[in-house]
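Intended use. Records like the one below are meant for learning the mapping from a protein sequence to its folded structure. Do not use them to infer anything beyond what is encoded.
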Amino acid sequence: MQKKSCGALLMPLSYDNIEEGIMEEKKSEINDFLYKFKYFAENISCFVFVTRDKNMQILLDLNMTVAQALQDVIFQLTYLNYVEGPLADEKYADQGLYVFGFLYNEMELYIKLSDSFKHNYAKCLSFHKAEYKLKYPFKEDKEDVI
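Structure written out for the chain above:
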């Protein structure tokens, strides 16, 4: 019996190739999340901004409305702003949480968004000044803020 050739690999398999593939999958997942979030949030009646003290205080400090926060910050997020997620939501087991960072008026903002899409809305749980230095896995300089 003659052995069949499986063909040559297009790219030599290495740890870097595997890591690169995982990062591409993650980037795709984040882009998909942001697309869905922005889709629901475009209709303001499908957008929930949680009115925690910290969230409301930063809006006052920045002289910004929720609509401005949505337009000027949240709609500008890309995979490069990604920090971590999806994280488990302790209140709602069927929802995941994504954390992003954004530089606005020289201030690093911490933004936590929920994938509440099964319930037909987009929810921003956290929108405030970052309390610690955020790390951005898709940036060359992992601590460089966008």
